[in-house]
Amino acid sequence: MTNGHYTAIILAAQRPGIVNPLAKAYSKSHKCLIEINGIAMLQRIVKNTMAASNVSKIVISIEDANIALSIPEIKRLFDDGAIAFVKSELTLADSIVGAIEQVGIEHMPFFVTTADNCLHTPEIIDYFLNQVRETGAEAAFAMTPDTLVQETYPGTGKITGQHKLIDGIYSNCNMYAITSAAALKTAELFRQGGQFGRKEKRKALIPVVGLWSFFLYRYGLLTFKGMSKQASRALKIKARGIKMPFADAPIDADDQISFDFIEARLKEREV
Questions:
Q1: Which part of the chain is the MobA-like NTP transferase domain (predicted)?
Q2: Residue 247 near residue 147 (C-beta atoms within 8 A)
Q3: Domains (range + CATH), the chain
Q4: Distance CA 165, CA 143 (A)
Q5: Distance CA 14, CA 89 (A)
Q6: What 3 state SS string does 8-67 have?
Q7: Cα→Cα distances 58→1, 188, 203, 233, 268, Å
Q8: How far apart are CA 23 and CA 29, in angstroms?
């Protein structure tokens, strides 16, 4: 572990009452246990997060630590004191807030990500966190321009989640930062709207960000910078969107198509 100062929270729990199709296909209780190019998803994201120079502590949020400890390398890291566990809550938002409460707000700032981001590298993580520091953001989220994804990987439009703005289409990277106590309210975005915009849940964001902000976002009337300004105004904190120059950053193992794509990419990397 390096001398960085972020506490990383890796969300690895399975949502209650939901059978993940990938986990079922690979006969696993949790998607994060599936091996992709020979290494469990959770092990991959832990390894790459640990290697990021901005991260000093890693905490895994999951229902039962024994689930993750079934991965031998995760057990070794835990036995060595390199990682810790917190108990997840029923919802994504509550799991984030609960993890921060269990870890202790004195360990802020926090970096939050999910266990299926198998293409995230230390370079990607450090770029995001360096930008968060440079902008002075209290809350931040990472997005990659879809033009970059399509130029790098033509025909992969269905793999990434897309947000239409005035200055282009952007894809969420599942990387978030919380650097102040006031910014904890951003967890409400997960509770009300999912991971920044699943289509069926977007209307639930209205009470959080306000009707005008939602209208501007919903109808693509914001620029990338404008989205940060609206979020800052609505949440009364300094919120920033970080534009990522990495085509791999927004591609997570969400279904079999994206899983196969990621595995092929990892095989190219790890020859």
A1: 29-147
A2: no
A3: 1-119 (3.90.550.10)
A4: 12
A5: 10
A6: EEEECCCCCCCCCHHHHHCCCCCHHHCEECCEEHHHHHHHHHHCCCCEEEEEEEECCHHH
A7: 9, 23, 33, 31, 28
A8: 6
Task: Report how far residue 248's alpha carbon sits from residue 246's, in angstroms, rounded to the nearest whole number.
Answer: 5
Long-range pairs of 225-232 with CB within 8 A, sequence gap ≥ 24? 226/165, 226/166, 227/165, 231/139
What's phi and psi for 233, nearest 5 deg? -65, -45
Predicted TM-score (pTM) above 0.70? yes
Q: Using CA atoms, how far apart are residues 231 and 245, in angstroms rounded to an integer?
A: 22
Cα-atom radius of gyration of the chain, to the nearest Å? 18
Question: Tens digit of pLDDT for each residue in 2-53?
Answer: 446 999 999 999 877 778 899 999 999 999 999 999 999 999 999 999 999 9
Strand ranges inside 116-263, DSSP E? 139-145, 162-165, 168-178, 239-243
Q: Which two tokens stand for residue 43?
A: 């092990």
Q: Give per-residue pLDDT as tens, 212-229.
A: 344 344 445 577 787 777
Rounded distance, CA 7 to CA 96, Å? 12
Strands 168-178 and 162-165: antiparallel
> Computed from CA positions of residues 255, 256, 259, 261, in that sequence, does the dihedral angle turn out positive or negative?
negative
Note the residue count of the chain: 271
Provide the 10 A C-beta neighbour count for residue 106.
Answer: 6
Tell me the backbone φ, ψ of residue 208, rounded to 5 degrees. -85, -50
